[in-house]
Amino acid sequence: MSLQLDWTPNTSHTGFYVAENKGYYEEAGIKLDILPYSESEGSTIVGSGNADCGIVTQESVVLAVAAGSRVLAVMPIFQHQVEELIVNKDSDFKRPKDLSGATYGGFGAPYEVPMVDQMVEYDGGQGEVKNVILNTGAYEAVYHGQVDTSLAFRNWEVIQAEEEGIELRAFRPQDYGVPDSYTKVLICNPHWLEANPELAQSFVEATAKGFEYAVENPTDAAKILVEENPSAFPSDQLVYSSAKVSAQEYVDADGKVGCNSEQRWTEVSNWLSKQGILVDPNGNPMTSPPPLDTLFSSEYEPKGCAAGA
What we know:
about 300 residues, alpha/beta, D-Maltodextrin-Binding Protein, domain 2, about 15% strand, globular
């Protein structure tokens, strides 16, 4: 089976590489082909059947399914939103409300600006930031004052900036009226799931076991990620530092890995619908989100997620 990565290897992927390295996949009879990052959106690749499973944001799942893509989330990777709105520490932006009318350097996802605007408004500002799509250049643009703010992963870019002596101020969206979300989720093609239910269950179980190892042994898990991807990182220390922060984000309030929350899916999909950014396959605006059972399934998640387990 195949897994489409959403970016170059990083700690969003640790559990997959641990499961491969530790033989969890081999024990489950799985031969996993990890496909390198592609500029095509993960939901498009998985929905078209060019990969069996992939990694995307929770928001992307809702947008893709609304637009007609057939993908199904089977397991959260991060149990919380780990992106933060960053500004230079020596800037005049002390709080989100100070960013009214500021320039946001983003990545082109339709939910980014509504998220930032809501943070600004929730904090007492006017919202309506100016959007400039810069992709990966957004971080550097913030550092050099070319844009005022951007969203960055607190378990990666924020740590990398600290290592490079760049001082930032960061704000978490969930602290400013935006519903907490699964920053990364594992999705699969529904046709593949229907045709391979036992394989899918084994894959999720083995993957969850890999992330559980990363929770309990972040340093060892980071070492595996580095060894499996030589010369892939700006610095190996970044991976080790990120692993410690990420270990806290892989688990939910009950200390479990890979468990979906119906409430979380409801809150996020309703919020996206409220922003007016969901469109149907014909490009027409949608007034309500897709049904929950078209977005995620608890059928394949780790057995420990079952009610009362």
